[in-house]
Amino acid sequence: MPKKKEIQNTINSNLFNIQINPENFDFHPNTPFVKWAAVEVSSFNVIPSEMEPLEIDSGLYAVFKYKGNQSNAANFYRKIYTEWFPSSKYELENRPQFEILGDKYKRNDPNSEEEIWIPIKLKN
Questions:
Q1: Using an 8 Å Cβ cutoff, are 97 and 59 in contact?
Q2: pLDDT score of 116
Q3: Among residues 20, 31, 98, 114, which one has the fewest Cβ atoms lying within 10 Å of its Cβ?
Q4: pLDDT of residue 108
Q5: How far apart are CA 74 and CA 45, in angstroms?
Q6: DSSP result, 86-101
Q7: Residue 95: other Cβ atoms inside 10 A
Q8: Using CA atoms, how far apart are residues 6 and 48, in angstroms rounded to an integer?
Q9: Looking at 40-124, which runs of residues are DSSP E strands?
């Protein structure tokens, strides 16, 4: 966050919390994955030192609205993976998943709101 002001060509004030899981990710707490903190930009012409560009391929995403502080987020995710996915016609696709932390996001606030984007594809 201290270097956020160095980023040029930002499109909006949204923050992105991006998770890139390995193939066949098991969601076990000790399984490593790659985490990015990002903002959306219109071009990569100027990239501040110690930062890298990341492009996410387009595709189908299930979008969930989460309201509450982070202490309840794990339960919300559990319901997505153990209830929503099994009853849907979709399965997880191996692309980055992310949260959009927009204007209604307030860290550790019970009224905080964010969008959770999970990559999906039709079940075989």
A1: no
A2: 97
A3: 31
A4: 87
A5: 37
A6: HHSSEEE-SS-EEEEE
A7: 19
A8: 6
A9: 61-67, 90-92, 97-101, 113-122
Q: What is the mean pLDDT of the chain?
A: 92
Q: Is 46 helix (H, G, I), strand (E, B) or coil?
A: coil
Q: How far is CA 94 from CA 17, 22, 48, 61, in A?
A: 17, 8, 29, 11
Please give the CATH architecture assigned to the domain spanning 4-122: Alpha-Beta Barrel (3.20)
| Under-70 pLDDT residues of the chain | none
Whole-prediction pTM: 0.90
- Give the separation between CA 6 and CA 50, rounded to whole angstroms: 11
Quick one: pLDDT at residue 25? 81
Q: Rounded CA gap, 122 and 90, in Å?
A: 4
How far apart are the C-alpha atoms of 8 and 83, rounded to whole Å?
Answer: 41
Instruction: Assign residue 44 a region (left: φ > 0; alpha: ψ between -120 and 50; beta: otherwise).
Output: alpha
